[in-house]
Amino acid sequence: MKELALHILDILQNSTRAKAKRIDLNIFEDTVKNVYSIEIKDDGCGMSPELLAKVTDPFTTSRTTRKVGLGVPLFKHTAEQSGGHLEITSEVGVGTVIKATMQHDHIDRPILGSVAAVFVQTVASNPEIRFVYTHTKNGKSYVFDTDEVNEALDGMPIQSPEVINYLIGMINENLKDIGVD
Amino acid sequence: MAVKSLADLKKMSSEFKNTVSLRENGDNVDSLIQIKVAMATCGIASGAKEVMDFYLEELDKQGIKAVVTQTGCMGYCYAEPTIEVKLPGKDPIVFGHVNVEKASEILEKYIKNGELVEGIIPVNYETVK
């Protein structure tokens, strides 16, 4: 994966498939403490301790269309190559939290990339799920909550390409304001 | 118009309301062109996001009414990125090895003119046990 955004896109799909009603994406950057973390939290079906124990194994998947599942192992690899680690906690019926913590200035930490695009595309593909994206950099935050956005859209379908492109632009503008490059 | 705040968004949606066509179409997805981009690890790693970006931008630019959504892995990991295109009243067709160039060909020939192009994957719904 060339960008962190692609990992985010990939892991968000796991949450949507876990029948989550709410999915939180929390990106936290602190250049003083040298921390870059990405957390994806859902209230989906969760995993049993047995499944959780082997979820970073590439030969683990819940799918029946193929026998490998590389999303989580690749994310773990990226976290570790960036001087960090990946933590997953999960409980059946409660949900799953997956968090990658990296060194902000690590030379092998991929760039964030087009997080706004992957996030809005995922939101638009799953209009029945509430998504909340919080990006914090050095104490400044931006929050995008689909409940608020849908209210502002007032019946306009979030799936239409026009709206998607507007929302991507909106997130990018706000991220720029809090110093995300 | 640049949208930055929720207030901007509200303003935009009320302006859009005057062009009702979008809303009417939104209510009836079956009457729209539907494009599903396979967006699992295999698809993402081989460039599915670029294909999705391309369709969202191009359909908006050309004013073609369509719904572009993500879907899971359809089991054709060897042929990623894959997309499923459903034209109104027709059976869905799955195309493989869809890079941006191929996506553009599919748009120009199949989506606009109904003309089939190379790269169709015969679909079956068998699964690996």
CATH topology of chain B, what is it called?
A: Glutaredoxin
* Greatest interface and its participating residue counts: A-B, 43 and 45 residues
Tell the overall outline of chain B.
globular
Task: Give the second-level CATH assignment, the architecture of chain A.
Answer: 2-Layer Sandwich
Folded structure, characterized:
The complex is a heterodimer of chains A (181) and B (129). The longest helix of chain A has 17 residues, at 161-177. A 6-stranded mixed beta sheet of chain A has the order 3-4-2-1-5-6. Chain A is 36% helix and 26% strand. With 181 residues, chain A is of the alpha+beta class. Chain B has 129 residues and is an alpha+beta fold. Chain B has a single domain, classed as Glutaredoxin. Helix content of chain B is 40%, strand content 16%. Chain B contains 5 helices and 5 strands. In chain B, strands 2-1-3-4-5 form a 5-stranded mixed beta sheet, covered by helices on one side. In chain B, a hairpin with a 6-residue loop joins β3 and β4. In chain B, α4 (48-62) packs across α5 (100-113). Classes of the chains: A alpha+beta (181), B alpha+beta (129).
